[in-house]
Amino acid sequence: MLKSSLRKLDRFLSDPEHGDDVMLLSELDGFLAGVAVCPELIMPGEWLEVVWGEDGPVFTSERQASGVLGLIIGHYNDILRQLNTPGRYAPLLEQDRDGSPLWELWASGFAKAVALRPDAWADFTISEGPAVHRAMAFFRKLDELANQPGDQFTEMDNALDAVAPELIPKCLEEFHLARLGLLDPAKPSEAPRTPHKSVGTICVPAARVRSSRSAASTDPCQLRRYPTSRRDRAEDLG
Fold first, then answer.
1. Cα–Cα distances in Å, from 74 out to 6, 41, 67, 70, 180?
2. What is the pLDDT of residue 199?
3. If 0-12 CB within 10 Å is exposed, 13-18 middle and 19+ buried, where does residue 29 land?
4. Rounded to whole angstroms, what are the CA distances from 207 to 13, 204, 235?
5. Enclosing domain of residue 117
6. I want to staple 107 with a disulfide (CB 3.0 to 4.6 A). Which of 72, 123, 142, 162 is the partner?
7. How many structural domains is the chain composed of?
8. What is the DSSP string of 195-216?
9. pLDDT (tens digit, 9 = 90+) per residue, 103-152?
10. So what's the pLDDT on residue 73?
11. What is the pLDDT of residue 20?
């Protein structure tokens, strides 16, 4: 279950009044995680513009704006605290009807963070050795799969889809350790000694089928679902 501050932030971000440009919570979590482990510091004044999108949210008062900003910065700091404890970080993922986690929105947010500093990430991936290179290849593949019809998945793609929720925190830790200079590039990547927490799930009965995954499939077990807009999400919750 989400803690109260995240539930409050989730309600604000998913409000249909804000349109579809403002990030939803799972996407925000992936984005902030990407900003946190970026090899080059990105100031909030820059990355907040990406969170809000082109039009930005509708604030009813300065107090509300300050409160929401505080929740976002607080979550960013919480991600850093989690990453400083091996096995602690748990990505916030949307939840399908059958209870399975959906990682697409999270991966979309992470990709947007990487896009803020592509050159820094390219240099970082090359210089930090095979563990970081493999982690970046994993995230790039997730971004590719998130925009690919499910009926075009290979057997390997389906396998990666299934284990993605468990690999996301492990690969993120590789970036964090390398960024801090604590990852030995000469050593092979190893799983953290402390088991990872279960992924955090945002319990949303997602009624719409992700069109890119379902275009040529009629098997419900192969469909990936998540709300396509804040208004859709509000209708689900209602």
1. 10, 17, 10, 6, 21
2. 52
3. buried
4. 19, 9, 9
5. 4-237
6. 142
7. 1
8. PPPPPEEE-----SBPHHHHTT
9. 999 999 999 999 999 999 999 998 888 989 999 999 999 998 888 877 77
10. 96
11. 85
| Pairwise CA distance, residues 205 & 231, whole Å | 13
Burial class (CB in 10 A: 0-12, 13-18, 19+), 132: buried
Could you tell me which of 78, 105, 126, 85 has the C-alpha nearest to residue 20? 105
Task: State the amino acid at position 207 in one-letter form.
Answer: A
Contact 214, 116 (CB under 8 A): no
**Are 15 and 96 within 8 A, CB to CB?**
no
Cβ-Cβ contacts under 8 Å for 94 (sequence gap 6 or more): 24, 26, 101, 102, 104, 105, 201, 202, 204, 206, 226, 227
pTM attached to this predicted model: 0.79
What residues of the chain score a pLDDT lower than 50? 188-196, 198, 203-238
Please list the alpha-helical segments (H only) found in the chain.
4-13, 25-37, 44-52, 62-83, 104-114, 118-127, 130-146, 155-179, 211-214, 230-237
Please name the residues in contact with 100: beta carbons below 8 A apart, sequence gap of 6 or more. none
User: Hey, what are 113's tokens?
Assistant: 């963070």
In sequence order, the β-bridge partners of residue 95 are: 101
Q: Which amino acid is at 16?
A: P
The CATH number linked to 45 is: 1.20.120.740
What the block records as the tokens of 105 is 């929105």
